Give the backbone structure.
Amino acid sequence: MMTDLSSDASEIRAATMRLARHLRQQRAVKTMSDGQFAALAVLRYRGPHTLTALAEREGVSAPSMNRTVNSLEEEGYATREPDPLDRRKVNITITERGTTVVDETVHRRDEWLARVLADLPAADRDTLLAAARIILEAIER
Protein backbone atom coordinates (compact mmCIF):
# COMPACT_ATOMS: atom_id res chain seq x y z
CA MET A 1 0.00 0.00 0.00
CA MET A 2 1.37 3.40 -1.00
CA THR A 3 1.47 6.02 1.73
CA ASP A 4 0.20 9.50 0.90
CA LEU A 5 3.16 11.75 1.60
CA SER A 6 1.63 14.94 0.22
CA SER A 7 1.12 16.48 3.66
CA ASP A 8 4.70 15.71 4.69
CA ALA A 9 5.99 16.99 1.37
CA SER A 10 4.04 20.20 1.78
CA GLU A 11 5.42 20.81 5.27
CA ILE A 12 9.02 20.14 4.18
CA ARG A 13 8.58 22.34 1.09
CA ALA A 14 7.17 25.21 3.14
CA ALA A 15 9.97 25.02 5.70
CA THR A 16 12.74 24.87 3.09
CA MET A 17 11.21 27.73 1.12
CA ARG A 18 11.03 29.93 4.23
CA LEU A 19 14.62 29.02 5.11
CA ALA A 20 15.75 29.83 1.57
CA ARG A 21 13.93 33.17 1.66
CA HIS A 22 15.64 34.14 4.94
CA LEU A 23 19.03 33.06 3.57
CA ARG A 24 18.54 35.06 0.36
CA GLN A 25 17.91 38.16 2.45
CA GLN A 26 21.45 37.88 3.86
CA ARG A 27 23.44 39.51 1.08
CA ALA A 28 26.36 41.86 0.69
CA VAL A 29 24.60 43.97 -1.95
CA LYS A 30 20.94 44.54 -1.12
CA THR A 31 20.08 45.70 -4.66
CA MET A 32 21.44 42.56 -6.35
CA SER A 33 18.72 40.20 -7.59
CA ASP A 34 18.73 36.49 -6.84
CA GLY A 35 19.36 35.80 -10.54
CA GLN A 36 22.34 38.14 -10.61
CA PHE A 37 23.80 36.57 -7.50
CA ALA A 38 23.23 33.05 -8.83
CA ALA A 39 25.06 33.85 -12.06
CA LEU A 40 27.90 35.48 -10.15
CA ALA A 41 28.17 32.48 -7.83
CA VAL A 42 28.45 30.15 -10.84
CA LEU A 43 31.31 32.26 -12.17
CA ARG A 44 32.96 32.29 -8.72
CA TYR A 45 32.77 28.54 -8.12
CA ARG A 46 32.68 27.09 -11.64
CA GLY A 47 34.90 29.54 -13.50
CA PRO A 48 34.33 31.48 -16.73
CA HIS A 49 31.34 30.55 -18.91
CA THR A 50 30.06 31.56 -22.29
CA LEU A 51 26.72 33.35 -22.19
CA THR A 52 24.97 30.27 -23.59
CA ALA A 53 26.57 27.92 -21.06
CA LEU A 54 25.71 30.25 -18.18
CA ALA A 55 22.11 30.57 -19.38
CA GLU A 56 21.77 26.79 -19.70
CA ARG A 57 23.26 26.19 -16.24
CA GLU A 58 20.82 28.67 -14.70
CA GLY A 59 17.83 27.49 -16.74
CA VAL A 60 17.08 30.84 -18.38
CA SER A 61 17.08 32.10 -21.94
CA ALA A 62 20.20 33.58 -23.49
CA PRO A 63 18.57 37.04 -23.85
CA SER A 64 17.61 36.97 -20.16
CA MET A 65 21.13 35.97 -19.15
CA ASN A 66 22.53 38.68 -21.43
CA ARG A 67 20.54 41.28 -19.47
CA THR A 68 21.81 39.79 -16.22
CA VAL A 69 25.43 39.82 -17.40
CA ASN A 70 25.06 43.37 -18.73
CA SER A 71 23.96 44.56 -15.29
CA LEU A 72 26.80 42.65 -13.61
CA GLU A 73 29.25 44.26 -16.02
CA GLU A 74 27.84 47.73 -15.40
CA GLU A 75 28.42 47.30 -11.66
CA GLY A 76 31.93 45.93 -12.16
CA TYR A 77 31.14 42.42 -10.91
CA ALA A 78 31.83 40.57 -14.18
CA THR A 79 33.58 41.13 -17.46
CA ARG A 80 33.49 39.65 -20.96
CA GLU A 81 36.77 38.43 -22.36
CA PRO A 82 37.69 36.77 -25.66
CA ASP A 83 38.33 33.05 -25.34
CA PRO A 84 42.10 32.51 -25.61
CA LEU A 85 41.64 29.34 -27.70
CA ASP A 86 38.70 30.37 -29.87
CA ARG A 87 38.50 34.09 -30.67
CA ARG A 88 34.90 33.67 -31.84
CA LYS A 89 33.82 32.89 -28.27
CA VAL A 90 33.44 35.32 -25.41
CA ASN A 91 33.79 34.15 -21.82
CA ILE A 92 32.12 35.84 -18.90
CA THR A 93 34.50 36.11 -15.96
CA ILE A 94 34.00 37.28 -12.40
CA THR A 95 36.01 40.31 -11.29
CA GLU A 96 37.73 40.79 -7.96
CA ARG A 97 34.81 42.99 -6.92
CA GLY A 98 32.37 40.23 -7.87
CA THR A 99 34.37 37.66 -5.95
CA THR A 100 34.23 39.87 -2.87
CA VAL A 101 30.43 40.15 -3.16
CA VAL A 102 29.98 36.39 -3.46
CA ASP A 103 32.35 35.62 -0.60
CA GLU A 104 30.79 38.24 1.68
CA THR A 105 27.26 37.05 0.87
CA VAL A 106 28.14 33.41 1.55
CA HIS A 107 29.78 34.49 4.82
CA ARG A 108 26.69 36.48 5.88
CA ARG A 109 24.40 33.57 5.06
CA ASP A 110 26.54 31.09 6.98
CA GLU A 111 26.79 33.46 9.96
CA TRP A 112 23.02 34.04 10.02
CA LEU A 113 22.31 30.32 9.92
CA ALA A 114 24.96 29.63 12.58
CA ARG A 115 23.18 32.13 14.88
CA VAL A 116 19.86 30.36 14.27
CA LEU A 117 21.44 26.96 14.93
CA ALA A 118 23.16 28.21 18.10
CA ASP A 119 19.74 28.74 19.69
CA LEU A 120 18.76 25.10 19.16
CA PRO A 121 19.51 22.13 21.38
CA ALA A 122 22.43 20.00 20.15
CA ALA A 123 20.09 17.11 19.34
CA ASP A 124 18.02 19.34 17.05
CA ARG A 125 21.16 20.58 15.29
CA ASP A 126 22.23 16.97 14.77
CA THR A 127 18.79 16.16 13.36
CA LEU A 128 18.94 19.10 10.94
CA LEU A 129 22.42 18.15 9.78
CA ALA A 130 21.26 14.58 9.16
CA ALA A 131 18.20 15.90 7.30
CA ALA A 132 20.39 18.16 5.13
CA ARG A 133 22.54 15.19 4.16
CA ILE A 134 19.47 13.08 3.38
CA ILE A 135 17.95 15.84 1.24
CA LEU A 136 21.15 16.30 -0.75
CA GLU A 137 21.48 12.56 -1.26
CA ALA A 138 17.85 12.29 -2.40
CA ILE A 139 18.05 15.12 -4.96
CA GLU A 140 21.41 14.05 -6.34
CA ARG A 141 20.23 10.56 -7.27
